[in-house]
Amino acid sequence: MAAAPTVASQMVPLGELFNTAGAGDGIRHYLAAKKISTTPTLALIAKNAEDFTTMIVAPFLAGVTIDGQDHKAEAGDEPVATAIMIHLFVEARRQWDIFSQAPTAPQPQAAAATAAQTAAGNTPTAAATAAHIPDRPPKTFAAWTQQVTAYEEKLFDGKRRTFPVQELLGAEEVLARMWFEHTVTKMYTPVTLGEILCRRTWTPGRMLNPLAAERAAKSAGSKALRLEHGALVPEEPSEWSPWGLLSTIDGANAARWAWILLGIGEEADVIKYADWFVAKARAHADMVPAIQAFWPEEQYLLRRGGEERHERCGDLAGDRRAS
Question: Organism's domain of life (predicted)?
């Protein structure tokens, strides 16, 4: 019997990944000097985009000498170099997540029982099917390319759109949870105003996000343990919450792009809801904590279908114009 293909053999070779990302010689030589010579190595060199930025991207931007050879991004090209390198990492990680999560073969006894049921004309029980559904979301978001492609293939005035990935890059853990809830459990958790902001790699000003760097540093340190589902798991850093007007608006806009990317609610309704909240916050800038209380209360509307959702989102839009 032929051996099963390895994860590495199914991933795009690193040279081809360089070509599709438009990586120049400077980036190629730098990654080679860092001993990153295969796509799996690139995928596993860091836990997430924040760590990759700190470990790999930042030294290249600042300039570093490895084995007597200087490596530094060209002056003025730092944003492009950063985008290319993060794209390389995210794509490599996406491929690793896809090919390393192939379904495992069923145990012989279970396979025999299922075969016997099928032969007898019976359908496997719901309990047997449910046993294969994970009880918690993954930490990585494997549907990046799929969802970005779906967004960009919807033409606007006959032209392809471009999804602003920098709005969400680095917040894959949040996206993975939202995607899991949307596609598996249908049990939705409200998206808070701070959870994407404190994880994403970039600020709206396209600067490296200090909140993400601080969170990554805390995650890398020693952690307290707590009991969850009968097992000891490390405590995650406490959630950050925005306290000012601009960060509150940033949080709403980040959630807007997450909902649109994942297809949670109709895009037009998501836009109406986010615009309503942003307008409400601007109109009452001296009451930010009170305005933030509105945020989770209306999110259920985005998941309702038909006329009720459109009517209520229309009411919100009318409320925005009146405020």
Answer: Eukaryota
Per-residue burial over 207-219, b if 16 or more Cβ lie within 10 Å, else e, is ebbebbbebbeee
- The answer to whether residues 184 and 278 belong to one domain is yes
Model-level pTM? 0.58
Based on the domain organization, do 87 and 231 belong to the same domain? no
171 and 277 belong to one structural domain: yes
pLDDT of the residue at 27: 94
pLDDT for position 66 = 94
Q: Cβ neighbours of residue 185 under 8 Å, at least 6 residues apart?
A: none
How far apart are alpha carbons 234 and 46 in whole angstroms?
A: 19
Q: Which residues contact 265 (CB under 8 A, 6 or more apart)?
A: 259, 273, 301, 302, 303, 309
3-state secondary structure of 83: helix
Asked whether residue 305 carries a pLDDT value surpassing 90, the answer given is no
Are residues 94 and 189 located together in one domain of the fold? no
Q: Could you give the number of structural domains in the chain?
A: 2
pLDDT digits (tens, 9 = 90+) for 253-302: 999 999 999 999 899 999 999 999 999 999 999 999 888 988 887 677 67
**Nearest residue to 197 (alpha-carbon basis) of 152, 250, 142:** 250
Same structural domain, 94 and 192: no
Q: For tokens 């294969």, what's the residue?
A: 132
- Residues 186, 318 within the same domain: yes
Q: In this model, does residue 218 exceed pLDDT 80?
A: no
Residue 78 has pLDDT above 70, yes or no: yes
Does residue 96 share a domain with residue 176? no
